[in-house]
Amino acid sequence: MVPVIRSWKGHSLTSLKSIRGVRVVVSSGNVSRVTRKPMLNIPHPPLPARVPGLPQLLQLPGKLLPRSLHSQVLSRLLNRVLQEPLKNDELWFLAGRVLQVEVTDLALDYRLTLENGRLAAASPGRTPDVRFGGTAREFLALALNREDPDTLFFQRRLQLEGDTELGLEIKNFLYSLEAGLLPAPVQRIAESLLERL
Question: SS3 string of the chain?
């Protein structure tokens, strides 16, 4: 009679066999080897180029979270991404001024200012000095250096309202930024979103 094997190194045989890709070799009533079978690397099907309803899905955080929280998150991200320009005082023109960034298709509205050499969420009651408005696609194209600011403004894909001089300073600053400022994970997410919007 062949002995019944119920465990191996503290693991029940049935639990070992239930693990995907595990092969248990039994010889002479003893477990001689537990190995992993090579697993097939099946690629996931690609997402469609455009995802209908994606802008509505991306609106959820805007509807669920307070506006001031949006601006705080954006200011923290921008402080990290624009660390060098902020150190070099290249955003001096925003000191005491309020920039409104409105992502029209996502119903998001950010208000930022420069305080103590860092970008910060502007107080809710402050009136913006300048407003940049456009779709998420246009802002992503700008952030990823896929399009230059002049093209986006001249084609009216990004709108500029308010203090023209301040708007030109911001536009020139954006134009001077080098590619690759975004952290790699943020860059990948932004590129993926740009392809699907």
Answer: CCCCCCEECCEEHHHHHHCCCEEEEEECCEEEEEEECCCCCCCCCCCCCCCCCHHHHHCHHHHHCCHHHHHHHHHHHHHHHCHHHHHCCCCHHHECCCEEEEEHHHCEEEEEEEECCEEEECCCCCCCCEEEEECHHHHHHHHCCCCCHHHHHHCCCEEEEECHHHHHHHHHHHHHCCCCCCCHHHHHHHHHHHHHC
